[in-house]
């Protein structure tokens, strides 16, 4: 809520600057997001009087204006506004002035004619378009009262004020009115607000001669009050009222509508005004809408209502959505002469649901949702009618129509001094606590350390002792509360083994150059069925907000592919990302899905870009396999990890995909996306992997044992063998592990060749074998014997020809 500092000072004594006030109030419970000075950066902007206005000789849309700006001679100013005319009092920026966006105004010529300044629209001096009166949206602003030429235009427009941005939480809706803010600020500085009530003089004609009213269900409108004003003249509001509204972020409309907004800003009580003649009857009925019943609201939008909506009707058709927005069919206009003013309390749940359903969030609905001061409903209504009588020249009918009403009572809460001090850890005295309650405007009596606190209806958020303790803490000052350590025994928290493993996995992947992504757990039905590691049924969302978020995910890959598409659309072509999260799957008659920890990754583009000393290196299958291998090695699995070519995953390239096994358990897959899948989904060449972390968590592990660096030298042997193309490196490595002997420490593939000098259907693989003993130096015979056993096993098991 935008709070005017000048208006606030009219309601309560404020002994500090706006910035100090913002800091103090923020520390007592209501955050102030900032302080805005509308005149910041503006200068040399004055009031001007247009003496003459004639067409520019060299333009069909510009005008030459003689403008009195309080100097000895008028200034000639060229103006292009369509509404400029002689006799107007306007805003003038003189040469050397600074207007919005730090634009400097200079002397100049326009189409050959001298222009010594600028006649300004409100937007040009920093007003938001949302608060500019509609009649001045496309032209200059014209003051509707006489002002002295040359006087400060910024002062006339209220721009020397300071605007405090109060961030009102739902529990403090009492501060959605200036009076509530005044009570809050007064409590903070021990100042009592001073409100001036607007007296209402009623006419002699009873309201019953104009109108009757009925509320079908008192739960929909517990309090419903109406007044009638006759013989009003609808016109532009006086400047002081316009200032109040636009400094609060509200657009001025006309004097009647502006008064309802003024009262809402003052009391926090929304009002609505109906054109009596447009109602079409002398009866108002509050009821539920009928299913399919139409209503066009003030914003011009047509709505088809249902029986959850509360409507105001003329006895037959709706004329307003209760608590949300009025209907276009009863709008106040320049022809209005008799006005019906409504002040009420509506069911907050229905108001909230109606506003959300039709996307009609308004200042009124926001207040009705959070609550209003029931004690001020009639006070606000009477004040509004009094202003309408004064500014509209009308006459109030005698009396108020009140088909439903509530009695607003103080809430009495008992609390002891010992309880307050125990909760806050303070040593406050009885007179201190009594003073705090009185600062807040609460009635209080005290006897033997027990306070009986009467909380007025304007603070409907307070009901129990804990609420009073909070109020004492706020006003006493949170920063004044003592700091004490707990006296109970403390349990030192630590990560579970599963949490540690997950964090370790994240650190490893980030060390390998991948960036963590977090995607939606909801996806489409089609995407949920893709990249599945295990069979299962999807889990549907009962009421999805969109079809793109209708099913719980069953894989981690599709969400990452959405991230890649998002980056590709923004010219980010080198992407390496991973996500650790849960998938959801059901089997049989499960109602609640099983949640399984998964890890997914997706890489596209280049691993390294081209520079002066290296070529670009694109992501490929073996690069991704290396990442997965490095990650799995860190798990210290007892059973060996193996990769087996697969065509089981339809979304992967049939020649560049592999299942990942730990022993005989399939725990994941990796590979390139199928080219057809890439084309259909507008993806570049992309490689993905997916692992079942829960399966890895329960897989047998071997304990890591630190060993000293070897003291004895290693011996290497190179071997090249020719095998069938169907023989895999994994098969060869298995032979090495099985027959290499106790001293074989490492095997490394360093060359693969097929082509000239190699028989068709054959390939050549070359390995380096490293042997080492930890207790002594190996002899040549030991290495030769071990190497010969490997060669024999390769020949017998794989039909390999040693080259």
Automatic annotation (TrEMBL):
Recorded hits in PROSITE patterns, A to Z, give: B5 (PS51483), FDX_ACB (PS51447), TRBD (PS50886)
Question: Mind telling me which SMART domains this protein's record contains?
Answer: B3_4, B5, FDX-ACB
This protein's UniProt keywords: Aminoacyl-tRNA synthetase, ATP-binding, Cytoplasm, Ligase, Magnesium, Metal-binding, Nucleotide-binding, Protein biosynthesis, RNA-binding, tRNA-binding
Any single GO CC term annotated in Swiss-Prot or TrEMBL for this entry: cytoplasm
Q: Which residues form the TRNA-binding domain?
A: 39-154
Which positions are annotated as binding Mg(2+)?
Answer: 461, 467, 470-471
User: Which transformation does this protein catalyse, written as a reaction?
Assistant: tRNA(Phe) + L-phenylalanine + ATP = L-phenylalanyl-tRNA(Phe) + AMP + diphosphate + H(+)
Task: Give the GO terms filed under biological process for this record.
Answer: phenylalanyl-tRNA aminoacylation
Q: Which GO terms describe its molecular function?
A: ATP binding; catalytic activity, acting on a protein; magnesium ion binding; phenylalanine-tRNA ligase activity; transferase activity; tRNA binding
Is Chloroplast among the key words of this record?
A: no
Could you tell me which residue ranges the B5 domain spans?
408-483
- Residues covered by the FDX-ACB domain: 710-803
**EC number of this enzyme:** 6.1.1.20
> So which residues are the signal peptide here?
none
| Subcellular compartments | Cytoplasm
> Is Iron-sulfur tagged as a keyword?
no
Which HAMAP family does the record cross-reference, listed alphabetically?
Answer: Phe_tRNA_synth_beta1 (MF_00283)
Please state which protein family the record places this protein in. Answer: Belongs to the phenylalanyl-tRNA synthetase beta subunit family. Type 1 subfamily.
Quaternary form? Tetramer of two alpha and two beta subunits.
Q: Which NCBIfam families match?
A: pheT_bact (TIGR00472), YtpR (NF045760)
Q: What is this protein called?
A: Phenylalanine--tRNA ligase beta subunit
**Per UniProt, what is the name of the gene that codes for the protein in this document?**
pheT
């Amino acid at each position: 809520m935008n709070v005017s500092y000048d208006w606030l000072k009219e309601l309560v004594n404020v002994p500090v600057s706006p910035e100090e006030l913002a800091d103090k109030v923020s520390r007592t419970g209501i955050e102030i997001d900032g302080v805005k000075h509308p005149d910041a950066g503006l200068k040399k902007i004055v009031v001007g009087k247009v003496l003459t206005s004639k067409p520019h000789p060299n333009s069909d849309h510009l005008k030459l204006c003689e403008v009195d700006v309080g100097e000895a001679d008028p200034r000639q100013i060229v103006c292009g506004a369509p509404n400029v005319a002689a006799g107007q009092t306007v805003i003038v920026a003189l040469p050397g002035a600074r207007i919005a966006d730090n634009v400097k105004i200079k002397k100049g010529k326009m189409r050959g004619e001298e222009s010594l300044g600028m006649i300004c629209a409100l937007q040009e001096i920093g007003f938001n378009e949302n608060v500019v009166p509609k009649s001045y949206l496309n032209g200059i602003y014209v003051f509707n009262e006489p002002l002295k030429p040359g006087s400060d235009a910024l002062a006339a427009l209220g721009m020397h004020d300071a605007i405090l941005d109060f961030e009102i939480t739902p529990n403090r809706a009492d501060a959605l009115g200036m009076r509530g803010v005044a009570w809050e600020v007064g409590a903070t500085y021990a100042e009592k607000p001073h409100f001036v009530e607007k007296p209402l003089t009623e006419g002699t004609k009873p309201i019953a001669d104009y109108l009757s009213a009925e509320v079908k269900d008192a739960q929909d409108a517990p309090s419903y009050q109406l007044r009638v004003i006759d013989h009003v003249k609808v016109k532009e509001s006086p400047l002081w009222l316009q200032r109040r509204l636009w400094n609060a972020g509200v657009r001025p409309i006309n004097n009647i509508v502006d008064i309802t907004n003024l009262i809402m800003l003052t009391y926090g009580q929304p009002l609505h005004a109906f054109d009596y003649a447009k109602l079409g009857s002398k009866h108002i009925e509050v009821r539920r809408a009928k299913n399919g019943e139409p209503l066009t609201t003030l914003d011009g939008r047509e709505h088809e209502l249902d029986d959850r909506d509360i409507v105001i009707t003329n006895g037959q058709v709706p004329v307003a959505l209760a608590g949300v927005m009025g209907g276009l069919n009863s709008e106040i206009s320049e022809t209005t002469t008799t006005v019906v003013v409504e002040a009420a309390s509506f069911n907050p749940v229905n108001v909230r649901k109606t506003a959300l359903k039709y996307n009609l969030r308004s200042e009124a609905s926001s207040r009705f949702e959070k609550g209003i001061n029931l004690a001020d409903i009639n006070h606000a209504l009477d004040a509004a009618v009094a202003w309408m009588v004064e500014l509209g020249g009308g006459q109030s009918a005698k009396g108020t129509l009140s088909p439903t009403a509530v009695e607003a009572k103080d809430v009495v809460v008992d609390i002891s001094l010992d309880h307050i001090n125990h909760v806050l850890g303070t040593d406050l005295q009885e007179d201190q606590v009594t003073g705090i309650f009185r600062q807040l405007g609460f009635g209080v009596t005290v006897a033997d350390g027990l306070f009986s606190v009467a909380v007025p209806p304007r603070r409907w958020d307070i009901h129990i002792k804990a609420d009073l303790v909070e109020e004492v803490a706020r006003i006493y000052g949170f920063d004044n509360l003592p700091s004490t350590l707990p006296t109970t025994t403390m349990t030192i928290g630590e990560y579970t083994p599963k949490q540690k493993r997950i964090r370790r996995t994240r650190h490893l992947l980030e060390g390998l150059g991948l960036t963590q992504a977090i995607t939606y757990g909801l996806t489409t039905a089609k995407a949920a069925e893709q990249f599945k590691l295990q069979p299962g049924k999807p889990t549907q969302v009962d009421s999805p907000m969109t079809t793109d978020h209708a099913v719980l995910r069953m894989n981690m890959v599709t969400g990452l592919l959405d991230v890649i598409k998002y980056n590709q659309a923004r010219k980010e072509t080198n992407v390496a990302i991973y996500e650790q999260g849960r998938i959801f799957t059901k089997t049989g008659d499960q109602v609640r899905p099983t949640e399984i920890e998964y890890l997914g990754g997706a890489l596209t583009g280049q691993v390294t870009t081209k520079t002066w000393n290296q070529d670009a290196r694109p992501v490929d299958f073996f690069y991704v396999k290396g990442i997965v291998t490095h990650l799995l090695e860190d798990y210290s699995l007892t059973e060996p990890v193996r990769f087996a070519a697969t065509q089981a995953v339809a979304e992967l390239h049939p020649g560049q995909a592999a299942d990942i096994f730990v022993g005989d358990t399939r725990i994941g897959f990796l590979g390139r996306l199928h080219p057809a899948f890439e084309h259909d989904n507008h993806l570049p060449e992309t490689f993905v992997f997916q692992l079942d972390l829960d399966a890895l968590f329960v897989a047998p592990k071997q304990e890591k044992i630190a060993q000293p660096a070897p003291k004895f030298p290693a011996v290497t042997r190179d071997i090249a063998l020719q095998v069938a193309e169907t023989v895999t490196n994994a098969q060869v490595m298995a032979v090495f592990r099985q027959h290499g002997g106790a001293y074989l420490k490492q095997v490394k593939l360093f060359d693969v060749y097929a082509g000239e000098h190699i028989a068709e259907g054959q390939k050549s693989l070359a390995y380096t074998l490293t042997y080492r003993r930890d207790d002594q130096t190996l002899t040549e015979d030991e290495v030769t014997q071990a190497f010969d056993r490997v060669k024999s096993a390769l020949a017998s098991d794989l039909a390999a020809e040693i080259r």
